[in-house]
């Protein structure tokens, strides 16, 4: 089944993004305790933060559906000059491995190309081997790794992956 992508514009959809984040972060960040993963979701994907980003025009959020069920979300940051940043891409466990992430990367690249940009990039936890495999399958190349304090006292190495053309 092909995914449907819907842009987040209403409060109900913002709540859905935050609820998905709470569920998916615990599924995804298995090397962290569930409590720390839930704190990450609250810190980085709360309703308030998502709503603020939308209203500031900083980031555009999208929900991903298979049929009528929301299976994930992603965000595109259009602020970087000459680039589009896939600033978040999270899928429920059961939706992974179905080509949805590749569809999102292609969507971001098409948007970037149409806007005259020549780069798409994303940042992932450097120890996430599944995310690294995804980036390689989508023909991104690793551009660097830097430590980022994601919560007070919790620092993770974050890798930047990019795809360039022209």
- Please estimate the helix content: 25-40%
Q: Beta-sheet strand percentage?
A: 25-35%
Shape: globular
The top-level CATH class is Alpha Beta
Q: How many domains, in number, for the residues?
A: 1
Description:
With 166 residues, this protein is an alpha+beta fold. It has a single domain (4-120), classed as Gcn5-related N-acetyltransferase (GNAT) (Aminopeptidase, 3-Layer(aba) Sandwich), CATH 3.40.630.30. Helices cover 39% and strands 35% of the residues. The chain has five helices and seven strands. It has helices at residues 11-28, 34-45, 47-56, 100-114, 129-137; strands at 4-7, 60-66, 69-77, 83-91, 119-125, 141-151, 154-164. Strands 1-2-3-4-5-7-6 form a seven-stranded mixed sheet, sandwiched between helices. Strand 3 and strand 4 (83-91) form a beta hairpin. The protein is globular and about 45 Å long. It starts with a strand and ends with a strand.
Which features characterize this protein?
about 170 residues; alpha+beta; Aminopeptidase; seven-stranded mixed β-sheet; about 40% helix; globular
């Amino acid at each position: 089944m092909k995914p449907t992508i819907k842009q987040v514009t209403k409060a109900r959809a913002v709540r859905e993004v935050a609820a998905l984040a709470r569920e998916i972060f615990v599924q995804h960040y298995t090397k962290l305790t569930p409590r720390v993963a839930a704190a990450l979701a609250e810190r980085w994907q709360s309703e308030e933060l998502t709503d603020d980003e939308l209203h500031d025009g900083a980031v555009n959020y999208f929900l991903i559906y298979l049929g009528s069920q929301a299976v994930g979300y992603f965000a595109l940051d259009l602020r970087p000059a000459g680039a589009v940043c896939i600033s978040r891409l999270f899928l429920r466990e059961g939706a992974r491995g179905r080509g949805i992430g590749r569809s999102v990367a292609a969507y971001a690249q098409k948007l970037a190309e149409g806007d005259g940009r020549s780069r798409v990039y994303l940042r992932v936890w450097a120890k996430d081997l599944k995310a690294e495999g995804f980036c390689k399958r989508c023909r991104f190349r690793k551009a660097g790794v830097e430590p980022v304090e994601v919560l007070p006292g919790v620092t993770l190495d974050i890798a930047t992956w990019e795809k360039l053309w022209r």
